[in-house]
């Protein structure tokens, strides 16, 4: 059952009868967390609200550019302290290592210190990471497109030039959008590297036959060898094992399949799903601890918001904005509105200055015509820039704000019909 959404009794002393400010602590400064912070700061500027944002690095990382970063393109990471200073928001650089929801405290560790930060409302926006536990050898040998650390995009940026110099061989495992973008980018940036793209499903069929064959043509033109309907069953130091035990030699493997949220919420005993995402109500509050909000890749809305929720920068941005609208309504004593949205468009990069762009309104199903080549690139680049600008200013509008209600009406009508049929039987 639901607990109250009000913060716990605050034991801080009051100054001359002024109530202490409400402390909002946002953890994770990606698309969702940063947009939430900037938007909430604008909405509660005249209220007694203190906002702090915690993030591991001091820059905003545009993850949709990490395959470009990994292949040596110039990518500009924006400074978080600079952005936040303008809005008077406190920035705490460090890694959140635990959440104590009973005492409303989190633990943040940086290189020198361990600090405890208290909150009245916690906003959980830690994003997602590649699941390294699914196949043997991935944890030890495979690179992923994490921003930093060993076997990350930053490590690839250092390593790929030497693979190119010896005309080496890279295996990209996973045929989702990230795998396609990575294979195309490596092949396009390093023409002397032989790239294999290995994917369990028929290549890009989730985008429909026409988009799938356009993507296949482009990848083949870049020299990528596609092994679809093939699984990687193990990763070794200089090879991957594929179906039936045959081995594909390579200098390195880039693993792009299977994103999960970090384990923090699960470890803290909050309600999560099988991918560690915090399960939230339509107002983006944890269903087990409603003083904790979750947004972006790390959140899983329990109710249908009118469109399928896919881990993406677009949905993270919308959830960040909607979460800020919900919390600011609660802080003003108003009723928040349920999450509701529709998709508008998507772009998948296919190497330098090339992409496929299409309309996916409203349900995330691609609709022809598809825009390829330069035009596709302009569409994808336009989306990525638009989202980065929206995040920095906390401003975004999105379509489909009535879709949640329509889903509710449909579900109620169906339940009524089923009940009447049962009654007749
Ligand atoms: C290569 C690649 C290409 C992509 N292309 C697209 C695309 O074209 N379109 C699209 O819509 N989506 C794309 N995505 C997906 C998209 O980037 C993510 O869905 C989006 O970034 C999710 O936003 P978020 O705010 O939930 O999390 P994130 O952007 O992951 O941000 C989470 C933040 O939390 C921080 N953090 C995590 N754990 C901790 C901790 N314990 N302590 C402190 N800080 C922490 C992280 O450092 C990060 O700054 C792509 C992803 C990748 C990897």
Label this structure with key terms.
single chain; 425 residues; alpha/beta; FAD/NAD(P)-binding domain; 3 domains; 11 helices; 24 strands; binds flavin-adenine dinucleotide
Tell me about this structure.
α1 packs parallel to α9 and α1 (31-43) packs across α10. The chain folds into 3 domains: 22-128 and 261-331, FAD/NAD(P)-binding domain, CATH 3.50.50; 135-257, FAD/NAD(P)-binding domain, CATH 3.50.50; 346-404, no CATH class. With 425 residues, it is α/β, with parallel strands linked by helices. The protein has 11 helices and 24 strands. The strands form 8 sheets. Strands 5-2-1-9-20 form a 5-stranded parallel β-sheet. The protein has a 4-stranded parallel β-sheet with strand order 13-12-11-17, covered by helices on one side. 43% of the residues are buried. Residues 27-33, 54-57, 61, 63-64, 66-67, 95-96, 125-128, 145, 178, 181, 262, 296-298, 311-314, 316 line the site of flavin-adenine dinucleotide (FAD).
Which second-level CATH architecture of the largest domain applies? 3-Layer(bba) Sandwich
Q: Which value, in Å, is the CA radius of gyration? A: 23 Å
Mean pLDDT across the residues is 94
Helix content: 25-40%
> CATH superfamily of the largest domain, please?
FAD/NAD(P)-binding domain
Name the poorly predicted regions. Answer: 1-9
Q: How many domain modules? A: 3
Distance between the termini: 33 Å
Tally the helices.
11
Strand adjacency order, main sheet: 5-2-1-9-20
Q: What is CATH's topology name of the largest domain?
A: FAD/NAD(P)-binding domain
Write down the overall geometry. Answer: globular
Structural class: alpha/beta
């Amino acid at each position: 059952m639901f607990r109250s959404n009000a913060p716990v009794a605050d034991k801080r002393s009051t100054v001359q009868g002024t109530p202490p400010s409400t402390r909002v602590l946002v953890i994770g400064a990606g698309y969702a967390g940063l947009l939430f912070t900037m938007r909430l700061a604008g909405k509660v500027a005249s209220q007694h609200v203190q906002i702090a944002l915690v993030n591991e690095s001091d820059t905003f990382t545009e993850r949709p550019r990490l395959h470009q970063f990994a292949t040596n393109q110039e990518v500009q990471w924006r400074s978080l302290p600079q952005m936040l200073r303008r809005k008077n928001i406190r920035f705490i650089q460090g890694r959140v290592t635990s959440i104590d929801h009973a005492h409303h405290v989190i633990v943040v560790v940086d290189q020198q210190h361990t600090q405890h930060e208290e909150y009245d409302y916690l906003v959980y926006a830690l994003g997602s990471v590649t699941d390294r536990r699914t196949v043997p050898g991935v944890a030890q040998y495979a690179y992923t497109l994490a921003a930093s650390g060993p076997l990350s995009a930053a490590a690839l940026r250092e390593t790929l030039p030497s693979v190119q110099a010896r005309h080496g061989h890279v295996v990209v495992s996973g045929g989702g959008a990230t795998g396609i973008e990575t294979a195309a980018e490596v092949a396009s940036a390093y023409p002397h590297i032989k790239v294999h793209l290995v994917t369990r499903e028929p290549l890009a069929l989730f985008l429909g036959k026409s988009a799938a064959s356009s993507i296949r043509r482009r990848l083949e033109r870049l020299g990528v060898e596609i092994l679809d309907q093939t699984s990687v069953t193990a990763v070794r130091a200089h090879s991957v094992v594929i179906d039936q035990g045959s081995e594909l030699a390579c200098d390195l493997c880039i693993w792009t399949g299977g994103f999960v949220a970090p384990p923090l919420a699960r470890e803290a005993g909050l309600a999560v799903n099988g991918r560690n995402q915090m399960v939230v109500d339509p107002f983006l509050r944890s269903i087990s601890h409603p003083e904790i909000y979750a947004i972006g890749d790390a959140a899983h809305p329990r109710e249908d918001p009118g469109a399928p929720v896919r881990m993406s920068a677009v949905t993270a941005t919308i959830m960040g904005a909607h979460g800020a609208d919900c919390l600011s309504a609660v802080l003003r004593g108003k009723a928040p509105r349920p999450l509701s949205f529709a998709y508008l468009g998507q772009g998948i990069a296919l190497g330098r200055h090339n992409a496929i762009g299409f309309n996916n309104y409203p349900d995330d199903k691609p609709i022809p015509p598809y825009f390829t080549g330069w035009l596709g690139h302009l569409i994808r680049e336009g989306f990525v820039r638009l989202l980065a600008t929206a995040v920095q200013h906390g401003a975004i509008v999105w379509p489909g704000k009535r879709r949640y209600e329509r889903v509710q009406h449909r579900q109620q009508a169906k339940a009524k019909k089923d009940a009447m049929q049962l009654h007749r039987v």
